[in-house]
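Hey, resending since the last one bounced:
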Amino acid sequence: MNLVGKLASMGAVAASGFVASKIADKGWTRVTGKEPPKDDSNEGIVQVVVFAALSAIIAALVQRVVMKGTTRLLTATEGAEKPEMPEA
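The structure tokens again:
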């Protein structure tokens, strides 16, 4: 993979983490009517575990979609090598 492909992949992964975090926060607030539990909150352990699990699922899905899009874009670009998908 060339340098541009590596930089594009790194940027895509960073952006997907940010987007996934915002999706999880907004979704939690919309469904529960409360702010998402944070590190220093006094929320119940069940809420913290459920929020963490949902956040991880959303992050994995968003990252997968973004990496597929990045791969398609890089392979469509003339002369670009196909980047390797990260192992799950």
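The longest helix spans residues 45-76.

Sorry for the duplicate.
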